[in-house]
Amino acid sequence: MMEMYILLGFVLLLSIFLGLELISKVPSTLHTPLMSGANAISGIALVGALMLSSAGQMQDILAFGAILFASINVFGGYLVTNRMLSMFKKK
Amino acid sequence: MENIANIQVIQNIVYIISSVMFILGIKMLGKEATAVKGNYLSALAMFSAVGITCLSLDIDIKIILAGVLLGGLIGSLIAIKVKMTAIPEMVALFNGFGGLATFLIAWSQFNEPSNSMFQHILIMLTIYIGGITFSGSLIAYGKLSEKLKLGKGSMITNIFISFFYLSMPALIYVGAEPYVSEFIPQIPSYFMIFLVLTLVAGIGFVMPIGGGDMPVVISLLNSLSGIAAAFAGLLLLNNVLIVAGSLVGASGLILTIIMAKAMNRTITNILFVGYASASQANVSEEQGEVKPITSDDAYLILENASSVLVVPGYGMAVAQAQHVVREMGELLEENGTEVKYGIHPVAGRMPGHMNVLLAEANVSYDLLAEPDDVNPSMDTIDVAIVIGANDVVNPSATEEEGSPIYGMPIIEVHNAKTVFVLKRSMSSGFAGVQNPLFFKENTRMLFGDAKESIGQIVAEFKD
Asked: Cα separations (Å) of B391 from B123, B212, B386, B411, B429?
């Protein structure tokens, strides 16, 4: 079990470094869309919510809440980002 | 048995593909030409990851459908209906919901039997970060939409701040609780108390932070929601959660650092100190006469200018003046004047706020320039028009060593031949520092609502 965690911890660290490298040079025009797009990605918690187990009413309520709020984050985040990006035009 | 193992293999392969798409998506989001495609790619990654997870479900499908459909409906409605000027608070709100989801996931995991010590600590950490992200984002939402006026110094704020500081030792306590309860007094319902404390702590974390520092706070909360998702991924042993969460954490962190640098302050100073020293009398009182000007005179000067730099700030957002500003810009260009927009990274209430507003008003993005691009050639600019910006054009930042904002990179409009400052009154900016720019020889003050003032100039051009 511990080996699994070490492996996943390794994935976590590498992903953070990758993220820092990818985004370090973003023009300030895109700061808001980037933030909003990243925010939509954090809705990946939806996958986590779907993996929850169902044992009793309390667990069902928690799962429903997690799915509901993560879905708001995902749908709202992507749509708002898309709306914003469609305004950025070069004439 | 073999069947289940196969499903898991397929799921993991799809998760890896999704992770790659997330990485490429966020990379493309960082370039103007590919940003739209990047967002689609990341949405596709989300769709595949969510879809493949549905191959093995424990929760009742009705609950899932109800949650996704209702959440999707609410999220889409907000995203479609929201006005572009309300984007900062919307981003804060969505971000908070993401934090809340991880908070609930960790709570549900806590109710599972037989968590190992490592899992127990992870659960507490995830709850802490997710909870602070949620309630902190709600407070940021309240502040940005101007529904919440409480700030630093009020009694209620101080109480919430105390809870924030109390929450840190509490986190250590709950993390260790099952293992040290033989030695220290046990609190039976410690978990419920911790849940509430976390939410209260998030309020205390964001409440004292002032409006002008909001770009930093929003980026930081954005980063935290990603980190919470990554921790939830560790908890559930799910690699796509870890990768996607970490990417968000990293991007939020970078924005936070960029914002802090643009203010020449450290992140800790912004979060925990604020502009406390601004009230001290070390700011020189060299004032003088301000020279007011009317829209008519401003028009005459602009008509003869060959290059104009527009420097917008939060005041332009408040006055909703972006559309008339664009109109004025176009009329100036027709008149043969070169028009540029100088955008300071922390102008407004979120990273890139001014860019979004001007984009909404249809200003081409290649006209928008950063301070480093415009400062070297500032002395060739005939007229710099400052619209509702203050601290980001304050020459004290370069000239006056005692000033609280000394060292902050600014747009040096005072080096332009003429400066118009559009302002409602003589009040100082967010930092509480008097602005010597207003008293300079080449500065003309155009008092009044920015939208009306520029509207009058536009009308004159059309005559």
From this structure: 42, 10, 11, 10, 6
Q: Which residues of B touch A9 (CB under 8 A)?
A: 234
d(C-alpha B106, C-alpha A87), whole Å: 38
Report yes or no for ipTM above 0.90.
yes
| Res B401: pLDDT | 80
Residues 106-135, chain B: which have Cβ within 8 Å of A? 107-109, 111-112, 116, 118
Q: Please give the single-letter amino acid code of residue B299.
A: Y
Q: Among candidates B12, B42, B36, which has minimal Cα distance to B24?
A: B42
Contact present, B388 and B313 (Cβ < 8 Å): yes
Domain segments of chain B: what residues?
1-81, 86-273, 295-462
3-state secondary structure of A27: coil
Q: Which pLDDT score, from 0 to 100, does residue B182 have?
A: 66
- Closest in B91, B101, B365 to A35, CB measured: B91
Q: Do A64 and B66 touch (CB under 8 A)?
A: yes
Max intra-chain CA distance, chain A: 58
Active site residue B373: no
Backbone φ/ψ region at B339: left (φ over 0), alpha (ψ -120 to 50), beta: beta
The answer to whether B34 touches A30, Cβ cutoff 8 Å, is: no
- Among candidate residues B58, B391, B449, B463, the one labeled active-site is B391
CB atoms inside a 10 Å sphere around CB B222: 32
Q: Which of A32, A89, A90 to mutate to test the interface with B (most CBs of B within 10 A)?
A: A32
**Count of CB pairs separated by less than 8 Å, A with B:** 372
> B295-462 domain in CATH 3.40.50.1220?
yes
Query: How far does CA B73 lie from the centroid of its chain?
Result: 25
Q: What is the pLDDT of residue B280?
A: 43
B136: its two tokens: 């902190």
Q: What is the pTM of this model?
A: 0.87
